[in-house]
Amino acid sequence: MLSGISSEIRQKLQTNLSRVWDRVTAAAEKVRRSPQEITLVAVTKYVLPEVLPALVDAGCQILAESRPQELWRKAEFAANLPVRWHLVGPLQRNKAKKTVPLVELIHSVDSVSLLETLETLGEKQGRQVRVLLEVNISGEPAKHGFPPEKMPEVLEQLKWFPHVQVCGLMGIAGLEGGLGAARQQFSFLRELRDRLRRSAPPQVELRELSMGMSGDFEVAIEEGATMIRLGSILFEGLPPECLKKD
Ligand SMILES: *Cc1c(COP(=O)(O)O)cnc(C)c1O
Predict the structure, then answer these.
(1) CB atoms within 10 A of CB 38
(2) How far apart are CA 43 and CA 16, in angstroms?
(3) How much is the average pLDDT of 110-132?
(4) Which residues surround ligand 1 with Cβ inside 6 Å?
(5) Distance in Å, CA 56 to ligand 1 centroid
(6) What is the mean pLDDT of the chain?
């Protein structure tokens, strides 16, 4: 357990973050995009809740977790901080009820049955549940996400889910093939989004493209990412007592 965050740790986080923003800006400018089009989602799964205030002070306002239970725990810890939460990992239906009120966006919706659950919750809780649909862009069977060819059919079904607002698509590049393969997969997701947008029902905007992590965010930005989900790169060089053990 951490008793307090030292000024060295704060300094480290600030340095990491400003380096990341420099790289975001350079990648955006390379393809004549404005860095302001890009939202940095700080994935906090590697660190203890005690690190969050320093992360917020360093300029992160959007925090994310990949596991609902860890999100609940950190959201409670950070209740008084000016942050918004995103969920970026799988959501089991029995964890949806508690998760939905805590999050601004769920990046990882990958089944129609989850859409149904979110619709029911949205209706009961009197809210629009904002989500991205996760697409399996790597073709690796172990990865989550709708198969791309299923997407037109999924969008067609959205009319049954008026309390679910689909804001865009999310994808994770595969482990194989390095940055070249990642680029192809990101470009594929953007083209899929553009195509789907033309035929999507009017309430479906598909503005957002959540793609790019610590190892491939520049390529993702060059290919049109509007949200990048960064974890490890933000926490490089932090002492082990800041890190989660598991
Ligand atoms: C952990 C995680 C990230 C961040 O990964 P890094 O490579 O550490 O930046 C992004 N997206 C999802 C879905 C994750 O689970």
Answers:
(1) 20
(2) 14
(3) 97
(4) 43, 45, 66, 88-89, 172, 213-215, 229-233
(5) 18
(6) 95
Three-state DSSP at 68 gives helix
Residue 182 has pLDDT above 70, yes or no: yes
Ligand 1: residue of 88, 179, 227 to mutate (most ligand atoms within 8 A of CB) is 88
Task: Give the type of residue at 156.
Answer: E
Banded pLDDT at 199 (limits 50, 70, 90): confident
Whole-number pLDDT of residue 202: 78
For residue 137, is it within any domain? yes
pTM: 0.96
Residue 230: what residue type? L
Between residues 202 and 244, the one the model is more confident about: 244
Total structural domains within the chain: 1
Q: Amino acid letter at 97?
A: K
CA atoms within 13 A on the CB side of 43: 22
- Would 73 be classed as within a structural domain? yes
Q: pLDDT, tens digit, for every residue of 225-237?
A: 999 999 999 999 9
Q: What is the DSSP letter of 176?
A: S
Residue that has been written with the tokens 């309390």 in this structure: 163
Range of the domain at 178: 7-237
In which residue are the tokens 């999100």 written? 71
Q: What share of the chain is helix, strand, coil (3-state, %, to 5)?
A: 50, 20, 35
